[in-house]
Write a structure and sequence with these properties.
The protein is an alpha+beta fold and about 230 residues long. It is built from five helices and twelve strands.
Length: about 230
């Protein structure tokens, strides 16, 4: 995605720029950003799309600091990435295991043998405890009951599951998309694919406005359909 953006002369990537605030008037929308040295700058455009994640400052500035209705589930999950020969055990690209204590998902990430293994963990355990308990969990749930020397673990990340949706995805010239607009259970790639559905629909709306095929009321339809 980054390499694609870098090849597009109409896209400028700015790393380490933190959003401070947003604003708009009848003719434009803008974002105030803070650079690494503390300098603040204002960047303006016809429209502003906040795709800045679950802790979105665009959403907070637009709708309020704590206005993100929904809940955080009282559970903890662990996402791990591992090289292990699941093919030898007849696993498909995506495998969902339902079990009273050991439910988990195993999905292929790359063609060279990297897989995602995600499982539920006790909500009270610390990060260090998650790390310490991982080998025993793998031995229980993975086919072949492997020991640590039988696989290569490349990543382990505990996370909480949220179910939240902003009250509005469009306020004037400012729109929200992806995790900035809504959070859901990421199992099965729902978070990623939901974000793709947002931005493709929003891009069509903005293209219609730019070409004169629609006016900005179409952004209300984006809000209606995606929310």
């Amino acid at each position: 995605m980054v390499s694609h953006a870098e090849r597009n002369s109409k896209i400028v990537l700015k790393w380490s720029h933190r959003v401070v605030d947003v604003g708009q008037d009848e003719n434009s929308a803008w974002v105030v950003i803070k650079e690494q040295d503390g300098t603040e700058k204002r960047i303006s455009g016809d429209f502003l799309c906040g795709c800045d994640g679950g802790t979105s400052q665009v959403r907070k500035s637009l709708l309020g600091e704590k206005r993100f209705p929904g809940k955080t589930w009282d559970v903890q999950f662990v996402a791990t990435d591992v090289y292990y020969p699941f093919d030898r055990f007849g696993y498909d690209d995506v495998n969902a295991m339902v079990h009273p204590q050991e439910s988990h998902i195993i999905a292929r990430l790359t063609k060279d043998g990297l897989w995602r293994v995600a499982y539920r963990e006790d909500k009270k355990v610390t990060l260090q405890e998650v790390l310490d308990r991982q080998p025993a969990r793998y031995e229980r749930i993975l086919p072949g009951h492997p020991k640590p020397e039988d696989y290569t673990l490349t990543n382990i990340s505990p996370y909480k599951v949220h179910q939240r949706c902003a009250e509005r995805f469009r306020v004037g010239r400012i729109c929200l998309a992806g995790d900035a607009a809504h959070l859901c259970n990421p199992w099965g790639g729902l978070g990623l694919t939901g974000g793709f559905a947002d931005v493709t629909g929003l891009a069509d709306c903005l293209e219609g406005i730019a070409t004169g095929e629609a006016d900005d009321r179409i952004l209300d339809k984006y809000d209606e359909v995606r929310r």
